[in-house]
């Protein structure tokens, strides 16, 4: 069994939508996953918008990283996704409507909303 994680922290620096704790959230979650839950550091992908050496957490990059992690996983593996950043609601993209008439979404650093259908 392999434990994989994708951790995404978006502080949105310089956008006018700045947050100040999201990178800290995923930094702390990485520590919890490796120190308490036995994830190997090499299997924890860390995406933040405050470190130029990180994979930039745009919608396209997040989708690609998740797709690759899913493809690499086998039955019995664990895949954990954690997002810290802005979220919201948008008009529904599919014929399935929720009681409130909207789909929930996350906003990657490029501010293009992502839903479970994205």
Overview of this protein structure:
With 118 residues, the chain is of the alpha/beta class. The chain has one domain. Helix content is 24%, strand content 23%. The chain has two helices and five strands. The strands form two sheets. The protein has a three-stranded parallel β-sheet, with helices on both faces. The protein has a two-stranded antiparallel ribbon with strand order 4-5. The mean pLDDT is 93.
Termini distance?
A: 28 Å
Question: Could you say how many structural domains there are in total?
Answer: 1
CA-based shape: globular
Quick one: how many beta strands? 5
Order of helices and strands: EHEHEEE
Rg measurement, Å: 15 Å
Largest sheet data = 3 strands, parallel
Count of helix runs: 2
Q: What quaternary form is this?
A: single chain
Helix content: 10-25%
Q: Output the structural class.
A: alpha/beta
Organism: Riccia fluitans
InterPro entries: Metacaspase, Pept_C14_caspase
Protein name: Peptidase C14 caspase domain-containing protein
Domain Peptidase C14 caspase: 3-111
Please specify the SSE layout and strand pairing.
Layout: E1 3-9, H1 22-35, E2 44-48, H2 59-72, E3 78-84, E4 87-90, E5 103-106
Parallel strand pairs: 1-2, 1-3
Antiparallel strand pairs: 4-5
